[in-house]
Amino acid sequence: MTSRSTYHHGDLRQALLAAALDVITAEGPGALSLRDLARRAGVSHAAPAHHFGDRTGLLTALAAQGYDLLAEALAAAPDLRERGVRYVRFAVEHPGHFQVMFQPELLRADDPALRAARERASAGLREGVAALRDVPDARAAGIAAWSLAHGFATLLLTHNVRDAVGDRDPEEYFRDLTGLLFTGQLAPEAGE
To answer: What is the pTM of this model?
Structure first.
């Protein structure tokens, strides 16, 4: 018989991160507590603090993990448009990470793992922008591209574009949006 005091979890750190993602995805970051995570993982209430220090440490670890996943997704894309598609896909596949990553008030901005992971993800976007020709301001182009992908992903996750997207694949819908904006070819209204 195994008592709670001798229970060995295996990879407790990862189990706590997974449980935190479940809570955040379902209820948002505000619903997260270390005590509840310990209960869900079947460990002592002090176990999460041992791995993360506090709630902010746990959220920072989740954000770093998310930025690493995002960097991997962006690196595999052939061009800026597809990096945007991968960004949207990342948000849909990792909504818990996405909710935490872009709320700096929840995180330790000076955390080395977070800073390194964030830089890798940012580099993926910069590489996509660098491949564009005739861009007078690469930084502004990067912010525009990020704003479009992040805005669409956020609207998608919060169900604000449900009617517009309908049954269409959100990735294809996003490709169409970028085509509208960046080719300048809006369909003329009937009678124009």
So the answer is: 0.86
